[in-house]
Amino acid sequence: MTDVPLKCKCGKVKGMATGVSPASGNHGRCTCIDCRAFIRFLERAEILDEDGGTELFQFTPSQIQITFGGELLRCVRLSPKGMIRWFTDCCKTPMGNTMPWPRLPFVGMPILFMDFAALGKRPEDILGPITMTGFENQATRPVAKVSGGVKVKVLGKMFWILGTGFVLGRAQPSPFFKADGTTTVPPTLLTKEERGKLADS
Q1: Does a cis peptide bond (omega within 30 degrees of 0) precede residue 173?
Q2: I need a surface site. Which of 35, 59, 168, 171 has the fewest CB within 10 A?
Q3: Which fold has domain 2-196?
Q4: 117 phi, psi to nearest 5 deg
Q5: What average pLDDT is seen over the chain?
Q6: What is the spatial order of strands in the sheet that 73-77 belongs to?
Q7: In whole angstroms, what is the distance from residue 108 CA to residue 141 CA?
Q8: Contact 75, 188 (CB under 8 A)
Q9: Domain map (residue ranges) of the chain
Q10: Whole-model pTM?
């Protein structure tokens, strides 16, 4: 397992992701329309790959420590029931996507926030290969579908991580939720009109 430094684009927010390895999380991509809308909200379209996707590592909040610039954390929800999407106010670097349930030990962190270069490594050297693309039917161009067996394996691993994380209390400590279950900063909720402007054209 490896401790990976965390850093936003401008360096005003820093931290550490501890105990990172292929076994501790899922290395994948998401090509869903909501992830693209979030990136457009941040005005960081250059982050998206050629399929309109975002590369992520899914693991538990207790593995994340923000050591500098915590006051610059912000979050947004694209809809009243949507995920809580975290970013830095300084340079609009996406930090992670969490579900609105504070006891769920889950965060999908864009690898853009993970400073592999500081370790002289590539993401796949520490996270392992990308194992699955989520919502490939929403990609901006046709994406090859993975086999059902691969999906079952990846989802099974995620359920195991969530299950053990829940039992072991790995939802806390968290840079995103306080111990009482409230978010560390109040989320901004987009209106339907604001969300519509971010949708795929």
Answers
A1: yes
A2: 168
A3: 2.170.150
A4: -60, -30
A5: 93
A6: 132-134, 26-30, 54-59, 107-110, 94-98, 84-88, 73-77, 188-189
A7: 23
A8: yes
A9: 2-196
A10: 0.94
